[in-house]
Specification:
By secondary structure, the protein is mostly helical. Helices cover 70% and strands 3% of the residues. Strand 1 (7-9) and strand 2 form a beta hairpin. The model is unreliable at 1-21 (pLDDT under 50).
Amino acid sequence: MPDPGMLAHGRDGTFTQREAVIDIGQAQDELRAAWQGGAPGVFVSGLAWLAADAAWYVGGPLYAFAALVIGGVLIVPLAFAIARAFRAPKATRGNPLNALGFETTVPLFAGLLIAFALLPFSETFGFAALAVVVGARYFAFATLYRERLYWLLGALLFAIGTGFAIKEGALPFHITLAVGAAELILAAWLFTRWNAAQG
């Protein structure tokens, strides 16, 4: 009799045996190890926002938006490369949280679409909306990596986006700089916490 913990629904609705991580805690720990607590992804995202800030000063908001689109596409492959450079182990294909990791990228591109639609009406409001969407996305990472620090990161980006939307032009810098700086700081904090947990 196969271990019930190793059973999963097949496509036809029957139970099939497979190599998979069913325990949620074990699945979280595996992804946390494979992606170093998600720190590389947050780091790359922060660099993308800072690149967008530089592009905004050089060519305007559309250039900033283009930088974020390119950066958004590169987050996963660059984060993967960074994790492998630190010799992080790969997650098993049967990890049930792999799908959640992929699904959290959908709001990112939805946010880009919303931002692009809002840019003609308000440059700041467009990027503020994207910051709120990205912040909301990070809340799911708390479950993905079993890391409550993502609640802080999500709330921080949500607050930055809301603040810039309400008080447009109140600060002498773009929202892209604020979001980028916040992500880089939290990426360092996430990596420090992940590294400390390795013993």
